[in-house]
Automatic annotation (TrEMBL), chain B:
Signal peptide: none annotated. One of its GO terms (molecular function) is chromate transmembrane transporter activity. This is Chromate transporter. InterPro entries: CHR_Transporter, Chromate_transpt. It is found in: Cell membrane. One of its GO terms (cellular component) is plasma membrane. Belongs to the chromate ion transporter (CHR) (TC 2.A.51) family.
Amino acid sequence: MDWIEWLQLIIGFFIANVLGYGGGPASIPLMYREVVTNHAWSTPEEFSNILALGNALPGPIATKIAAFVGYDVGGWAGAIAALAATVVPSAAALIILLNILHKHRQSPSVKGMTLLVQPVIAIMMLVLTWQMGESAIESIGWLQSLLIAAVAFWLMQMRKVHPAIVIVGAFAYGGIVIPHLPA
Amino acid sequence: MSEAKISNPYLQLSWAMMKTGVLGYGGGPSVIPLIRYEAVTHYKWLEDEEFGEILALANALPGPIATKMAAYLGYRKKGVLGAVVSVLAHIVPSGIAMVALLSAVQWLSGSAVVQGMIGAVIPVIAVMLGVMAYEFGEKAVKGLGLYVGIGSFALAFGLLQLAELHPAIVIIFFLAYGAFHMRMKDAWKKRREERLLKRGQDERLGQKEGVTRGLD
């Protein structure tokens, strides 16, 4: 990989992510455009495989794709370049904005802003809950979704179990029991 | 959960962000309640109010949500180095897994075991998101009062779901109003007090007049 390609990695992933509003899935078509269409770093079939693997693993989809494509194109230097271009711009923007806000912590304007985002967050989380619920029902059905949800709720809210433990438990149930249930 | 007391802040950050980076199934937003748990409940690095603010602003910016938040939390705790450590801890495990496992992708994405694992986790994340929605809703009502609270829920819902405005726009809109909210509240309160005072004075005047008239 020469330095031009290295630069292209940086610019390509920067563009894909700076335009990617609305979270993970929104940046996927943008990355496809850069990775497959513009630079032919991978073929459509390969990209589809990358996406499939990406969905089978945890973590932000954008960094998973950046890591793989970057490494594929230029080894560690490529991976680092792609990841940096993906992560740094928005992280830096957030840090700068919040720093400004933090300096004016005590101003009534900032207090008002903190207060007024709460209903928006509440609604956004509610909508996400609904979407997750739909997704769960689609993949494992009503009964299991409700059962797992009920157990999870009891464990986390009543028994104050660390969510990580509940999730690992769900993994175990899902990996061991579900494959043997009648489709 | 009896985690051994990790005192080194960098290790705390790394461990917390690694956990969220490894357990965050179901897409970008599913890490949000996990990060919230680590930052607000478990390590108590910040309160929910501040977390909500960070989340809102992070949603108003492009890019992957998890890394933005990991970076800010790391920065807040330990400056730029903290930010770097935090982000790396979050994305490196899955990044390496991507590179290492591509040859196994056919097996992995088709495997019933993996499908089952992912499927079973989603209701858990949904519960965490739902609880978060409720708790933020509670805070909103406590801070804004019942009517303004419910009104803002309705407005937020309408703008996001019915008008299908982009979340960033809705957040900026609420932030803009929020900047003036306190001032408007004070002005409204003052006007109300003046009105009540004036009404009280008028009533007293009116009673006096009524008494005189009665005696005529």
